[in-house]
Amino acid sequence: MRAPGCLLHSIDACCSMTACEWRDRRPSSEIDNDEQLMSTAYFSHADCGLHDMGGGHPESPDRLIAVDKGMGVVGVDKRIERRDAPAADLDAIKRVHDARYVDELVAFAPGQGMRRIDGDTAMNPHSLDAALRGAGALVAATDAVMAGEVANAFCAVRPPGHHAEHARAMGFCFFDNVAVGAAHAIAAHGLSRVAILDFDVHHGNGTEDVFRGNPNVLFCSSYQNPLFPHTSDTSVPGSLIKTPLRAGTAGSVFRKAIERDWLPALDTFRPEMIFVSAGFDAHRSDPLADLLLEAHDYAWITDRIAEVAAIYCDGRIVSTLEGGYALDALAASAAVHIDSLSRAGE
Ligand SMILES: [Zn+2]
Predict the structure, then answer these.
(1) Which CATH architecture has domain 39-344?
(2) pLDDT tens for each residue of 11-47
(3) From ligand 1's centre to the CA of 35, what distance in Å?
(4) N or C terminus: fewer CB in 10 A for the chain?
């Protein structure tokens, strides 16, 4: 029996639900026999759990705990290879961010207490280290996938990154982690066609700002509009594909929009590597937005991304956590995303 509501219930409740749709997607014999396969690297670091912008802030350390719990429910925790995210070199970050901005942010980081950048974004004494690990995770994940050590990778890091512009922190973000990874793939590995796919409910304005006009990057972003960060909906064929969605959009409509906008653009671009800004705040339970996606929609889009990657780039995918603020929904959604990556790499 399908348990349509189980993805919205607590993780503990889900532990006993063998009928969950995301467990039903594979025969139990496969689940029992694939512990040896480590096709997906999982990059994270304890520092990412110490960045804290204050009680009640939705971008909380509990988010990474939720992702870990969700993986346990699905069972994908046994099929990933956990790796510590290194701190990024500032030179890797300065490929995509203004050097003066980076140096000023490093100097701004407090030794104690909290320093506020804007109404939503603040640094505690651990925030700089967490941000460096977040960017470093993308660099290390890119290296691991390019070296063929693993098929793909997920970076469970925070702070998120896709709102951080070339010279500006905003929207919970300091360094644009996915942009750092994509720029590293181009500069250090010689790639000339890198796709960044962003299904966070908020437009990835930082990633657009970094790569606008860069012929090496195709950036596709689906997002609710109007909503923060209130950017224009204008696409640039071949390099910037924007998929704005109205409040109340259901998963079925989201899927059609992705098939209409992203898949043809990817077929034309023929990426050599795919990065994913994996935000899960378009889930119907999320408190910060008004789309109606469910966890199985994240499995669906990950499967589509994996199909494209299999055709054009030997399955090379590096995905990183962006938003997602309803903890149970985040747990279930991230888990099926990582499960899909893991199965794609087998
Ligand atoms: Zn978001």
Answers:
(1) 3-Layer(aba) Sandwich (3.40)
(2) 333 333 332 333 333 433 344 444 444 699 999 999 9
(3) 33
(4) N
Residues with a known catalytic role: 163
User: pLDDT tens across 111-136, in order?
Assistant: 999 999 999 999 999 999 999 999 99
**Residues linked to residue 317 through DSSP beta bridges, in sequence order:** 152, 274
Q: For the chain, what's the residue count?
A: 346
Q: What's the CA-to-centroid distance between 200 and ligand 1, angstroms?
A: 5
Task: State in Å: Cα 278 to ligand 1 middle.
Answer: 9
- 127: Cα separation from own chain's centroid: 19
Nearest to 345 by CA among 295, 309, 301: 309
Domain extent listing, the chain = 39-344
In order of 32, 93, 341, the CA distances from 79 in angstroms are 11, 30, 10
Q: Are 198 and 277 in contact (CB under 8 A)?
A: yes
If phi > 0 it is left, if psi is from -120 to 50 it is alpha, else beta; for residue 230 that is left
